[in-house]
Amino acid sequence: MRQGVWTHGDDTGFEAWVGEKSRKVIVTREAIEDYLRLDPVRAAAMSAEERHIFVIDNLAVIIAAANKKTDPADENDIVMIRTGEI
Description:
The protein has a four-stranded mixed β-sheet. A hairpin with a 2-residue loop joins β2 and β3. Helices cover 41% and strands 28% of the residues. By secondary structure, the chain is α+β, with helices and mostly antiparallel strands. It has one domain.
């Protein structure tokens, strides 16, 4: 069984109720770095585990961002959170 939040490559994701249905929410590395306002050196040093912990600690904020950009009529099962969307 997969853990509730996972990191694969540069993306960190989880499943949540978004836009009136269960969807995968994928948060890009760049979105996290932008939200934290990391300088290029710190951004390059951010580990997968740090991104994983960031998503866990900020689930409510990320789910709100996913809901904001999702239309309930949208049939897409994946919501991508990119730079500037958190």
